[in-house]
Amino acid sequence: MGFVLNRTLRTWTAAAMGGVLACGTLAACGGGGKDKSSGRQPVKGSPSPTALGYHPLNGGATGLTNPVLAVKIENTAPAMPQSGVSAADVVYVEQVEGGETRLMAVFSSHLPKRVGPVRSARISDLHLLPQFGRPAFAFSGVQSKMKKYIRQAPVYDISQDNGGRAYVRDNSRKIPYNLYADPKDLLKQAPKAQAPQDVGFRFGPAPDGGKPTSSFTAKWPAADMEFAWSAKDKRWLASFHGRPDMDAGGGRVGGQTIVVQRAKTTRSQFHDFLGAYTPLIHTTGTGTATVYRDGKAFDAKWSRPSEDKGTTFTTADGKPLNFAPGQVWIVLVNDGKPYMP
């Protein structure tokens, strides 16, 4: 069935009891020293909850102690243009029922004024989020059988049920693609949401080599996204089903680093009201990836030993594969052909 409840709960419980989630995963809490893996100097005068010296989610110098907020966002044609995606530090693309995709946008360094359309959570989210410690998690609801897992997960539940006036309906759009939220108001409902910790990413100069790449496409059974390199913008610009993917706040959606992470996808125990099973994306263990930055593609390996640990990306010879400072997309595709549960 894929999702092993008892094992997952043991992981979360052990992490909380051992203080892992309160202090960071791959690096000790506190500042200090030069980050040898990237060669970047720590940010002087800026407190950091990690030993990296830069923001662990985007490699920047601001918002180092801001809380982490994860938001589920619709990623189908009726939801376009989305709001707030361009402001995220990290954007995950996850397969959902019917071979479509949904985003989980992770914010910390700064917040947009509006984010959405906000949609429901999926079980794969609960496997990804423990590496962020205990973040705030915004979503519009879950399948009834998943509610107990949300309650047991290391997140602050600020869903539509708990978020109060932070959520509003946009009457110019059709339900269910019209629910939006104010991130600042969301975080008021989770005052103890954790600051960013080391999730395994490293930022700095690109490694040697790499294959010059102008564009590439990620595919799922019923969706595809293309990313094209813009030398002018120094980032990858996204398209959805061949159309430019725009942010409602202005400009094209895209990031400085796009990671296509190949992870085994199987059927979970959950399904929607139509009987379509929810995919489970296995994001612990090891696998292969392609890291796209600076107009080049780099072959990579990924490793995440447990759910309370971050995900590291390395070159073929085991050296950390630095991301370009800026927004990171983790595009999760099946390890093999597109998979339909």
TrEMBL record:
Q: Which InterPro entries match?
A: DUF3048_C, DUF3048_N, YerB-like_sf
Range of residues in the leader sequence: 1-27
Tell me which UniProt keywords the record has, alphabetically.
Signal
Task: Say which domain of life the source belongs to.
Answer: Bacteria
Membrane-crossing ranges are none
Tell me where in this chain the DUF3048 domain is found: 65-193, 221-330
Q: Which PROSITE patterns match?
A: PROKAR_LIPOPROTEIN
Region: Disordered, residue numbers: 32-57
Q: What is this protein called?
A: DUF3048 domain-containing protein
Organism field: Actinomadura gamaensis
